[in-house]
Amino acid sequence: VVPGETALAFYKAKNPTDKPIIGISTYNVIPFEAGQYFNKIQCFCFEEQRLNPQEEVDMPVFFYIDPEFAEDPKMAKVDLITLSYTFFEAKEGQNLPLPGYQ
Amino acid sequence: PLSLAGECSAFKERFMECLRDSGYESGACRQRAMAYLECRMERQLMANEPLEKLGFKDLIDEKSEAKPEK
């Protein structure tokens, strides 16, 4: 991937259970300092997504690395940026126990 | 939105094939990336944006300069 050039990447998600799952995903960029240069143009994140039992979907992310990345001396040694996604299950009306309070 | 029916999976496969063949050089596969996004936009699986604004201006300009194909 070249800074400034738009790029497409695919993730795949599968619901291995026998119940539909509604999830939200959030992403993370490593190294942390490279995150400021990561610009996503389109992705599947933040919105709730429903996956039926055994359903598998491709999830595209369309992004670019800000060309300023190439000018930042702190990024000179960075030649690998990792984008990872975590899928959280979104449950309605979940009552989380307050730690230490009963 | 999620493409649950895999409407554009053929375009995705062509793109992935290109990535594998090129040793994962993203720049070598921009034509096929563009085709994939066009597929999604045509099927309302992605907000419509002019391709020039998605970083494909050079590919669009090439297309319009080239002689019309079959």
Automatic annotation (TrEMBL), chain A:
Keywords: Membrane, Transmembrane, Transmembrane helix. Gene3D superfamilies: Ctag/Cox11. It is a single-pass membrane protein. GO terms for cellular component: mitochondrial inner membrane. GO terms for molecular function: copper ion binding. Its main location: mitochondrion. It is found in: Mitochondrion inner membrane. Interacts with CNNM4/ACDP4. Interacts with RANBP2. Exerts its effect at some terminal stage of cytochrome c oxidase synthesis, probably by being involved in the insertion of the copper B into subunit I. This is Cytochrome c oxidase assembly protein COX11, mitochondrial. It comes from Aegotheles bennettii.
Automatic annotation (TrEMBL), chain B:
GO terms for biological process: mitochondrial respiratory chain complex IV assembly. One of its GO terms (cellular component) is mitochondrial intermembrane space. It comes from the Eukaryota. Residues 8-42 form the CHCH domain. Keywords: Cytoplasm, Disulfide bond. It is found in: Cytoplasm. The keyword Cell cycle does not apply. Signal peptide: none annotated. Belongs to the COX19 family. This is Cytochrome c oxidase assembly protein COX19. The lineage of its organism: Eukaryota, Metazoa, Chordata, Craniata, Vertebrata. The gene is Cox19.
